[in-house]
């Protein structure tokens, strides 16, 4: 429905993500409008709900998974893309950069790319000044 309503105004989307920062829901106040997903829950949502809905829609919108810190890689990718049903709906992985100093790219991005070379990695959220002391 989201894509349909925008299309009425000639606005299209090349991609959407299953959920922005799926683990943030575990840390936000209860009144915040968010939902928490584990990797397994996101896998199931993609495989059974969002993936099939996008595939049936007239939109050529691609689906990105994760959309959270790269610290969750490659575990998150193994859980979601390790499932053949979910993997066929996912075009790539959306990654945020805020905690990049904690996890070297070889342990996260490179390891994930080696495991799933047919799925692209795209930084989707970043800013400078995130840490007050910098």
TrEMBL record:
Keywords assigned by UniProt, alphabetized: Glycosidase, Hydrolase, Lipid metabolism, Signal, Sphingolipid metabolism
Signal keyword on record: yes
Substrates-to-products reaction catalysed: beta-D-xylosyl-(1<->1')-N-(9Z-octadecenoyl)-sphing-4-enine + cholesterol = cholesteryl 3-beta-D-xyloside + N-(9Z-octadecenoyl)-sphing-4-enine; a beta-D-galactosyl-(1<->1')-N-acylsphing-4-enine + cholesterol = cholesteryl 3-beta-D-galactoside + an N-acylsphing-4-enine; beta-D-glucosyl-(1<->1')-N-(15Z-tetracosenoyl)-sphing-4-enine + cholesterol = N-(15Z-tetracosenoyl)-sphing-4-enine + cholesteryl 3-beta-D-glucoside; cholesteryl 3-beta-D-glucoside + H2O = cholesterol + D-glucose
Record protein name field: Glucosylceramidase
Gene symbol of the encoding locus: Gba_1
Molecular function (Gene Ontology), one example: galactosylceramidase activity
A Pfam family annotated for this UniProt entry: Glyco_hydro_30
Family to which the UniProt record says this protein belongs: Belongs to the glycosyl hydrolase 30 family.
One GO BP: glucosylceramide catabolic process
């Amino acid at each position: 429905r989201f894509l349909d309503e925008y299309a009425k105004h000639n606005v299209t989307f090349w991609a959407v993500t299953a959920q922005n920062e799926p683990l943030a829901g575990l840390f936000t106040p209860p009144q915040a409008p968010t939902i928490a997903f584990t990797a397994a829950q996101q896998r199931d949502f993609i495989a059974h709900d969002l993936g099939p809905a996008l595939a049936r829609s007239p939109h050529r919108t691609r689906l990105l998974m994760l959309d959270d810190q790269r610290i969750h890689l490659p575990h998150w990718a193994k859980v979601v893309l390790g499932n053949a049903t979910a993997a066929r709906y996912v075009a790539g992985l959306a990654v945020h950069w805020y905690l990049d100093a904690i996890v070297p790219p070889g342990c996260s991005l490179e390891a994930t790319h080696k495991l799933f070379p047919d799925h692209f990695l795209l930084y989707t959220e970043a800013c400078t000044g995130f840490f007050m002391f910098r």
